[in-house]
Automatic annotation (TrEMBL):
<dbReference type="InterPro" id="IPR016161">
    <property type="entry name" value="Ald_DH/histidinol_DH"/>
</dbReference>
<dbReference type="InterPro" id="IPR016162">
    <property type="entry name" value="Ald_DH_N"/>
</dbReference>
<keyword id="KW-0520">NAD</keyword>
<dbReference type="InterPro" id="IPR016160">
    <property type="entry name" value="Ald_DH_CS_CYS"/>
</dbReference>
<dbReference type="InterPro" id="IPR015590">
    <property type="entry name" value="Aldehyde_DH_dom"/>
</dbReference>
<dbReference type="Pfam" id="PF00171">
    <property type="entry name" value="Aldedh"/>
</dbReference>
<dbReference type="GO" id="GO:0004030">
    <property type="term" value="F:aldehyde dehydrogenase [NAD(P)+] activity"/>
</dbReference>
<feature type="active site">
    <location>
        <position position="249"/>
    </location>
</feature>
<protein>
    <submittedName>
        <fullName>5-carboxymethyl-2-hydroxymuconate semialdehyde dehydrogenase</fullName>
    </submittedName>
</protein>
<feature type="domain" description="Aldehyde dehydrogenase">
    <location>
        <begin position="21"/>
        <end position="476"/>
    </location>
</feature>
<keyword id="KW-0560">Oxidoreductase</keyword>
<comment type="similarity">
    <text>Belongs to the aldehyde dehydrogenase family.</text>
</comment>
<dbReference type="InterPro" id="IPR016163">
    <property type="entry name" value="Ald_DH_C"/>
</dbReference>
<dbReference type="InterPro" id="IPR029510">
    <property type="entry name" value="Ald_DH_CS_GLU"/>
</dbReference>
């Protein structure tokens, strides 16, 4: 039985209460490990270690910080196969995806911020006519909290931790209790890389206990959170009265606008990915597909045929396109939306049923599902399903497409397929989303701001935005 430990003060530790949670393998529905059910006292121990480490770490030269973070990146790369296999087993995602995307990106996160911190600088302003000069220091905040979800476990965990550490903060971090394994392996990598004890502390456990203890800790100065909108709301309510800095990356219900003048084959290939990559469990998946009337019937036939050809299989098999959903509870939630479709006057065009894989009968597999809807106002188009389920419907013109795209509480990303430059500019300006992709999807340059508008969150991650979040500007004005 795999026993995951907390990483506190540079050491692997059991929870103080000695209470444990089961860790499930979604590909077969069986318990394969135990994780700490950490309480307030573990979070307090992690905080104490971080607070103790802060004076030294915040005064460590940028070159040394950068070297340690680069070393972590190297070790993640060296251990690619082990980490990818662990991520795939813990989450249910195809091993091919973990190998090509999740783990390389986790390494890239550390490498990127190892470099970025050497280029990050405060500003100066000369107050002309007053014989004064202002310069702005960028001070690390102190001890910060990083909380991440289960869909891209190591990828999103490191996306927060790397900039926090690069900027000179010490961190108390919690991965999702549903997918804790690669965060645990990262602890060992940090020890091997020579990260000083207490600089990063990883505490495992449930959201409403361990996570809550991090958020309500009076001395943890900032919370960087990625997860569901309801959790984000709760965190904001808890943290705001303590005036903590908050970065909230929340849910999405992203529109995909397909115009008749697009590069059809590229669009079809990419739409397949933007719908079903990681079993549709990516906050950036385009789950509401709107297609221009004149190509709607053709798209419908082609898309259904391509989706039917996708292979749902065991995550460890190389040709698997869709692995298992992350948990039984999540599978049941997604199935409930599908079962409810007929009551919303919506038609299931393909998929919709559980898949049984011989030898893994209790795994959480689901067919990729396309549902044709009659209105954007239905529950299937308004609520985040976060599984292998997309809806499609036609639109008459650009105006109608834009209106439907924006008519939702979320605003994370939007994808537009067109070769008309003027339309690209009009829509990019008017779509209510933090990230717009035109003729592509999930193309990421780590320097760009990442985050959503409306109920998809507040704040931006990525590049210098993340380093600004994890530092406090302090202005010094000198008159001479
Ligand atoms: P979740 O909100 O249930 O959990 C996210 C994390 O928060 C977990 O570590 C959980 O333990 C913790 N948590 C739960 N309650 C807490 C509390 N009261 N205090 C502190 N921490 C708490 O989300 P999930 O189900 O793990 O992930 C899926 C959601 O994440 C989806 O809504 C998806 O859109 C969103 N997501 C957003 C982005 C983005 O960048 N915007 C990226 C990935 C996922």
């Amino acid at each position: 039985m795999n026993e995951i430990k907390n990483y506190i003060d540079g050491k692997m530790q059991a929870p103080i209460s000695n209470e444990w949670l089961d860790n499930f393998d979604p590909s077969c529905g069986e318990v394969y490990g135990k994780i700490p059910n950490s309480g307030k006292e573990d979070v307090e121990a992690a905080f104490q270690a971080a607070e103790k480490a802060f004076p030294d770490w915040s005064n460590t030269t940028l070159e040394t910080r950068s070297r340690i973070l680069s070393k972590i990146a190297d070790l993640i790369e060296e251990q690619l196969d082990i980490l990818a296999a662990a991520e795939s087993k813990d989450n249910g995602k195809p091993i091919s995806l973990a190998t090509k995307v999740d783990i390389p990106r986790a390494s890239a996160n550390f490498r990127f911020f190892a470099h970025a911190i050497t280029q990050f600088a405060g500003e100066s302003h000369e107050s002309v006519g007053f014989n004064a000069i202002n310069f702005t220091l960028r001070k690390p905040l102190g001890v910060v909290g990083c909380i991440s979800p289960w869909n891209l476990p190591l990828y999103l965990f490191t996306w927060k931790i790397a900039p926090a550490l690069a900027a000179g903060n010490c961190v108390v971090a919690k991965p999702s209790e549903v997918t804790p394994m690669t965060a645990y392996l990262l602890s060992k990598i940090c020890i091997e890389a020579g990260l000083p004890p207490g600089v990063l502390n990883i505490v495992h456990g449930l959201g409403h206990t361990t996570g809550q203890a991090i958020v309500e800790h009076p001395k943890i100065k900032a919370i960087s959170f990625t997860g569901g909108t309801a959790t984000g709301e709760h965190i904001a309510r808890t943290a705001a009265p303590m005036f903590k800095k908050l970065s909230l990356e929340l849910g999405g219900k992203n529109p995909n606008l397909i115009f008749a003048d697009c590069d059809y084959e590229k669009m079809l290939d990419t739409t397949l990915r933007s719908s079903f990559a990681n079993q549709g469990q990516i906050c950036l998946c385009g789950s509401r597909i709107f297609v221009e009337e004149s190509i709607y019937e053709k798209f419908k036939i082609d898309f259904v045929a391509r989706v039917k050809a996708l292979k749902v299989g065991h995550p460890s098999e190389k040709d698997t396109n869709l692995g298992a959903l992350v948990s039984k509870q999540h599978l049941e939630k997604v199935l409930a939306y599908i079962e409810d479709a007929p009551s919303q006057d919506a038609k299931i065009l393909c998929g919709g049923k559980r898949v049984t894989i011989p030898g893994y009968e209790n795994g959480y597999y689901l067919e990729p599902t396309i549902i044709e809807v009659k209105t954007n106002r239905c529950k299937l188009n308004q609520e985040e399903i976060f599984g292998p389920v997309v809806t499609i419907m036609p639109f008459k013109n650009e105006e109608e497409a834009l209106e439907m795209a924006n008519d939702v509480r979320y605003g994370l990303s939007a994808t537009v397929w067109t070769t008309d430059l003027n339309r690209t500019m009009r829509l990019s300006n008017q779509l209510q989303a933090g990230i717009i992709w035109v003729n592509t999807w999930l193309m990421r340059d780590l320097r760009t701001p990442f985050g959503g508008v409306k109920d998809s969150g507040v704040g931006r991650e990525g590049g210098f935005e993340a380093l600004r979040f994890f530092t406090e500007p302090k202005n010094v004005c000198i008159q001479y």
